[in-house]
C-alpha cells in the first residue's frame, strides 16, 4: 500500500528555543508494507490475533499478570499494581524474586551445558569464548561470594561498573543482582569525570573496571580512567574505597598504571579464594531496585533511572519473547553496548531470563573490515540480530556488498535508538536480511525498561520509517502543546505520551522524586491531586505522529536532548563543560544532520571581552568536551561567533543556530532581540 504523500502538520516545540531535533522524520513519505516470511510467522512466540483485545485498556492492569508469570517467584505477589500514590507505581507488590536466579539458576536443570553468553574479542585471531549456563553460575556465585565476604557488600548498596564489552561485565551485574546490590553501569567510553559524577550521585564506594581492552584495532588502557575517577570523586568529597580490576587477559596485568595499595584489587587473583563458593540468592521484593542507569535530560546533571527487580525483569522478559521472538534455541546478537539500557535489557536480562544464547562483542562492528559482523553471524549461527540505524548506515557505507558474501540466516532483525530513514531500512531488509526476514523498529527509552512501540512481528506488517503501534499493553496518545488530544490516526504531529503505567517503567529518579514528576508527568497531568492513574499520562519527550493505519512515526526529541548515533546527550551538559574553558562567555549546542550518526553536535561560542578567537581556543573546547563527557560528544565544529541570537528575554535561540548549521531557513527572526546577528553568523559558517 502506498498511502501517498500527506501533509503532516507539526506543532511540537513550536515555541521552544531548543534544538528542534523533532524534525527528523517529518518529511518522509508513507511507505509500502513488507510482510514477514511465512516461515517466521509459523514459528513465532506470539501469534494470537486476539492479543490486542486481551491487552486493551479496559483490561488494564490485569493483563500484566501474564508478564509476571514468565518469571520464577519465591513468593507470589498479593497486589498486581498499587497505583495509590501516582505517579509512583508499584508492581507485583508483596512478591519476592531474584533476577540472578531467573537469569541463571532456573536454566541449570534443562540446559546447563548450553552457551549463555559468547564473548567475541575484537582481534579476530583471538578465540571466541562460550560461557555455559553452568560456568556462568559458577562465576556469578564466586564473585558474589567475594562481594559479600571480601567487601562486605549487602542488599541496597551501590556498585559502579565502568567496563568494556566483556563477559565479566555481565557476570558482575548478575553477582550484584544475586546479593540485591544495586548496580550502576557507566558506559565504558564515558570519561572519568562522567564516571565520578555518577559515583558521587549514587553514593557508591566500589568501582569495578578492567585493565584495558581493544577498540578499533587499538589497545585502550582503561585503568587510567579508574585512577582519574577516584581523583575526581575525591575532589567532590567522595571516597572510593575499592577499585576492582579484571584483567582482559587473566594472569597478565596489561595497564601501565600501577596498583594503588589498599584500594586496587585484581579480581582474577582474589577469586581463587572463593573457588566453588555458592551464594543463596537474596529474596528481593518486586520493587527493590535492581539497577540505576544514568541518562541525559534537559538540565545539566544526568539523572539515574531507578529500575525495579520484578516489574523490570518481567517486562524485558515478555518483550524479548514477544517482540524479539527469542527462544531458548536461538543465538541472539545485539550490537549495543551493555553500558546503555538496550544492552541491559536486551543483551543481559531479557535473553538470559529466556535461557537463550546472547553475544557480547568487544569492539567496533567494522573492525577489521565491514564484513566482520556477517562473519560472526555465520560462525556462531546467529539468527536474531539487533542494532541501531547508525551502525546500519556505517556498515552500508563501508561495505555495501559484504552481507552477500556470507550465508548466515536471520529470522528477525531489530532497529532501535533513532529514526531510521526508509532507504536505510530497505538496505537492512534487502541486503542484510536478504529479503527474507522480519524486522522490528522498536521505540523506547532508558526510563522505560523495554519497548513502547513496535510491530508484533508475526501479526502486523512492517513499514519502513515507522515504529508501529503500541506494543501489547501500551496505549499511546498524542497531545498538542495545549494539552488537547491530537485526533488519533490523523497524521498530525504532537507530543507522544503513554496513557497507562507499565511494569518496565522506572520507579523514579534516584534521590530526586520531584524531578521525576516534573520531567515525565507535570506537562500533561491535569490534576496533580488525582489518585487515578488515568490522569497521569507519561510524557516521553518525543514528537510523533500516527498514520491512519495506527502506526506511529517518531519525529525525535522535543527537549534539549540530542541523540547522537542513538546516544542521548543533554545540550546543557555539553554547554556547561564548554563554559569551563577560559575566555568563553557563552555556548550553545545544536544538532547538525550527519549522514552516518543521524545528528552530531556543533557548538556556537562567544568569547569574553578582550579574548581573541584562536584555533587553540577551538581545540580547548573540543578537548574539554571529550574530557568531561567522552568522545561520543565530540563536536563536528566549534564556531567562534560575535554574539548568539537571543529572544528579548535573553534566551538563546538554538533553533536559529540549528537552521544555520543545517542550511535551512531560520524562519521568522524578527522577534529576536538581535536579528542582525543571524546573517553575521551565517557568513562565518559559510566561509
Ligand atoms: O528520541 C527517541 C530515540 O531515543 C530516545 C531514547 O534514548 P535512550 O534513552 O538513550 O534509549 C535508547 C534506546 C532505547 C527516544 O526518546 N529513539 C529510541 N528508539 C527510537 C527512537 N527514535 C526513533 N525510532 C526509534 N525506534
Overall pLDDT score: 94
What level of helicity do the residues show? 25-40%
Strand content: 15-25%
Secondary structure class reads alpha/beta
End-to-end CA span:
46 Å
Main sheet properties? 8 strands, mixed
What is the molecular shape? globular
Number of helices: 20
Q: Taking Cα atoms only, what radius of gyration do you get, to the nearest Å? A: 24 Å
Would you count the extended β strands for me?
30
Bound molecules: adenosine-5'-monophosphate-propyl ester
Extract low-pLDDT stretches: 1-19
Strand order of the largest sheet: 12-11-8-6-7-14-15-23
Identify the notable features of this structure and list them briefly.
globular; 30 strands; alpha/beta; 7-stranded mixed β-sheet; 21% strand; 8-stranded mixed β-sheet; 27% helix; binds adenosine-5'-monophosphate-propyl ester; disordered N terminus; 687 residues
